[in-house]
Design brief:
The structure is a single chain. By secondary structure, the chain is an all-alpha fold. The longest helix is centred in the middle third of the chain and has 27 residues. The chain contains 6 helices and no strands. The protein is flat and about 50 Å long. Helix 2 packs antiparallel against helix 6, helix 3 packs antiparallel against helix 5 and helix 5 packs antiparallel against helix 6.
């Protein structure tokens, strides 16, 4: 089964990649919404918010850093700061449900569903930017 999904994502036709990534994104949001509705608690929505906010520091810092020439050995501290803030958001996305489950605010299955749904959402958006980013190597 993994061979089929890797073939679909690595196929030259971007239509297949968009179909698979949209399906995974829908499953991720479904898990987050089900973790809220099945256990009558809206706190797991913060997990999806932290995983979506985790994308912003890398996007903002990569545009502000400069040094877009691939022949130079330019390394910016702004990019490092963006990676650090992104890491903080990702760790928060996993630790916040664990703290809420430990405090008894949400249940353990809601924690598992929220973390897995947030991971699928974040992974889908990262995969989309990887597959469809303009590399600029066209000569």
């Amino acid at each position: 089964m993994f061979r089929y999904f890797s073939f679909v994502l690595l196929n030259n036709n971007p239509f297949y990649s968009i179909i698979v990534l949209s399906f995974v994104l829908a499953v991720g949001f479904l898990l987050v919404i089900l973790s809220c509705t099945l256990y009558y608690n809206w706190w797991p929505l913060f997990v999806a918010a932290t995983f979506i906010l985790a994308l912003l520091p890398n996007a903002i810092c990569s545009k502000c850093a400069g040094g877009n020439d691939f022949l130079s050995d330019h390394h910016s501290d702004v990019i490092d700061a963006g990676h650090f803030i992104t890491g903080m958001f990702i760790i928060t996305g996993f630790c916040l449900p664990a703290v809420l489950a430990h405090a008894g605010v949400i249940t353990f299955p809601a924690m598992i569903m929220g973390c897995s749904g947030g991971t699928l959402v974040y992974g889908t958006i990262i995969a989309y930017t990887h597959f469809f980013s303009d590399q600029g190597y066209e000569f």
